[in-house]
What we know:
Layout: H1 2-20, H2 24-43, E1 51-54, E2 60-65, E3 68-75, E4 79-82
Antiparallel strand pairs: 1-2, 2-3, 3-4
Amino acid sequence: xxxxxxxxxxxxxxxxxxxxxxxxxxxxxxxxxxxxxxxxxxxxxxxxxxxxxxxxxxxxxxxxxxxxxxxxxxxxxxxxxxxxxxxxxxxxxxxxxxxxxxxxxx
Length: 106
């Protein structure tokens, strides 16, 4: 009888654990939230100003915000990795306004 109760306990526990596991959609939503935080930090840009664009597949995302555009790839067991050098999204950087001051020779 003890064995039967033990097996029932394991079965019920297994159902409880499997019911708590996140779905694929929940894990993807979490991954996109992580990407939003990461891109906001990397671009020094509020997350509310970022737009996301799926590129070749969902694991490659383009992020645009604060006049910058970058690409991230999802690396299994690692997370989002910056896969490009940031550059202006729509307009070139402003030219330097003045030359550095000259040093006097003594």
